[in-house]
């Protein structure tokens, strides 16, 4: 959502799942986390985004400008007006077993099943390797977005 939340037409709505660029509590560096839009604050042109990892009693929220919020696909049936990302593309994707996004490269595109839903992408995450090279890991269709410019 250009100027309104990263990549698809329109503005993110309350309840939408997003990739949100926040300052890490431990290192003060920027990191991408999975969050849910709580509201749009028009007077400051920011989204209030709740951290998906925070527990029920620990609702951690962040006020973020639109360029630090990327709308995730709403389902595995569509890319919300985006083409399926192709091998070689740089993306942000949720690392398996976490709610944090990391830079990755697509090795195999998500394929459409007979149900109409897309399966997983096969990715190589940056800095995930060892002496043997980078392991290839699956990532859910809904948790992969084009890598944002300027990050």
From TrEMBL:
Entry keyword Transcription: yes
Superkingdom field? Eukaryota
Which CDD domains does the annotation name? Tudor_SGF29_rpt1, Tudor_SGF29_rpt2
Ranges for domain SGF29 C-terminal come to 8-151
Cellular compartments per GO CC: nucleus; SAGA complex
List the subcellular locations.
Answer: Nucleus
Swiss-Prot/TrEMBL keywords: Nucleus, Transcription, Transcription regulation
Q: Is Manganese one of the keywords UniProt gives this record?
A: no
Major localization class: nucleus
Query: PROSITE patterns this protein is in?
Result: SGF29_C (PS51518)
Q: What is this protein called?
A: SGF29 C-terminal domain-containing protein
Organism, per UniProt?
Pyramimonas obovata
């Amino acid at each position: 959502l250009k100027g309104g939340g990263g990549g698809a037409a329109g503005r993110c709505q309350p309840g939408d799942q997003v990739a949100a660029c926040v300052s890490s509590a431990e290192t003060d560096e920027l990191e991408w986390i999975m969050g849910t839009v709580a509201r749009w604050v028009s007077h400051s042109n920011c989204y209030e985004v709740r951290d998906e990892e925070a527990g029920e009693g620990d609702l951690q929220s962040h006020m973020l400008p639109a360029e630090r919020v990327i709308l995730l696909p709403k389902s595995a049936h569509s890319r919300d007006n985006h083409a399926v990302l192709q091998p070689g593309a740089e993306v942000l994707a949720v690392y398996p077993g976490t709610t944090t996004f990391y830079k990755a490269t697509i090795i195999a595109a998500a394929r459409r099943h007979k149900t109409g839903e897309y399966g997983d992408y096969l990715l190589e995450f940056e800095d995930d390797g060892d002496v043997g090279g980078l392991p290839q890991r699956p990532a859910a269709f809904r948790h992969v977005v084009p890598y944002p410019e300027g990050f």
